[in-house]
UniProtKB/TrEMBL annotation, chain B:
InterPro entries: DUF7504, P-loop_NTPase. This is KaiC-like domain-containing protein. It comes from the Archaea. It comes from Methanocalculus taiwanensis. The lineage of its organism: Archaea, Methanobacteriati, Methanobacteriota, Stenosarchaea group, Methanomicrobia. Gene3D superfamilies: P-loop containing nucleotide triphosphate hydrolases.
Amino acid sequence: MTDTNKPALSEYEILKRTFDAIEDPIFYMAPDNTILHANMASATLLNIPLEEIIGKRCYQLVHHTPANIRGCPFILAKKTKKRESYTINLGEHWYQVSVDPIIGDNEEFIGAVHILRNIDSIKKIHELRAILGAIIETTPDPIIGETPDGHVISWNKGAEETLGYTAEEMIGESIQRIIPEELRQQHLETLKKIQRGERVDQIETRRIKKEGGEIELSLSLSPILDERGITTGIAVIMRDLTEIRKAERALLAYITEAALRLKNPIEIIAHSLEEITDLHMSGDIDDEELNTSIMIQVRHAEKVIENIRELQQSIVLNLDEIPQSYRKFLMDEE
Amino acid sequence: MDVIEAEESGIYLYISDPARLKQTNLEIVTSLTRKEYACIIVTTNIPSSLLTKLYTKNNIPMDRIHFIDAITKYSLGKVPGDQPNTTFTSNPGNLTELSIAISEALKRRNGDTALIFDSISTLLIYLSSPNISKFIHFITNKIRLLDIRAVYLSAEKGLDPLLLTQISSIVDEVVEQHEK
């Protein structure tokens, strides 16, 4: 009977092939930093044949230095007899280097296993996170992270400035704290939508500031989904509508003032000119009286233009959010 | 009841279609002079020379009329020399001068007198609503003390809602006239 389970290769060969099959570069090093063993991934990483690696010192091949670099994890591990690790950039890639000391029966350091793990994807994620974090922190708009049930997990500077609460005061708190009582039920219904994975875009609502007053805001809520599509958090982006409302009120005031200072006076001027013409044509007034009456209406018209100019300028001076080109136009500047 | 039908003194705000303002002025002045009232006409739109012609044509006795013309001098830079019953002020926006002219004319009144202000809406071309409101309050107090009649004329939609409310609250009656 043949033992079909009996390996065709020796245990050493199996371990050697396993060693070479691992994608991460691995070195086995003697106490003096000489590389005794290295797998195929090491040769690929260093771009030299495996036999040229063996017998060399790690710093010669990796760092191209005559001695160990400062903070070398091998030296540290030799001292601490514990795993030491650090991050290194080799060529265009980032590696997490860990050195595991091998301790002999008498607790002496007899060598180390040196493993380099490619962390490009992790590094990219960290970089992206750092960029996104910086964007979130520096944007003037409030951006809030919440748990699916509406507890605050992040609170940016924009939120601090707009709503008055610091991140320390809000993280861990229910978002209901800043929602006016009459809007809380509506918010709970919005939360249910988000929990189902739906987005809620630009709803106009109100929130309570720390000082006690209310602020008008536009809110966009997006679910943060895990790989299974389950909502694990909520990203809330707010936009302060105070300036927009201020501009709307200014616009209403402008329309009203423009009606009073432009439409109605022009109506009076038009009717007056019509009457003057009729009176002149019927012979009730002579040429001189016609001229006098027309001059009066010209004066009215000039004053109307002056009023509109003053109105434009007062609106422009009281509003900051006007594009420069429009500001110049409204201020009658060259 | 309007100023024409009223038996007693009172202050009225007439709101008229812009096309009817001149006609309203003529009707009120004709009616009051028939009742032997002397009329002080403050004009900020129609020159007093033209009003004189219109009144004469409508058989209004000119010896009962005194004009305070706030627009002719401002528009022409000079005043006509042949209008004895007229006080010219230099600028419709100069309320101090206008107030003095009205006060002087009221001092000189003889018998039943009415003040007709034509018009608040034209004055709005030259002054802000708050200033006009203060001025109307001042004139109204004076008229109340003297127990005479007064009519403020305004074009329809010629006053902003706040000014209209303020003036409506201090006059005895608001009369709205629309084009027929």
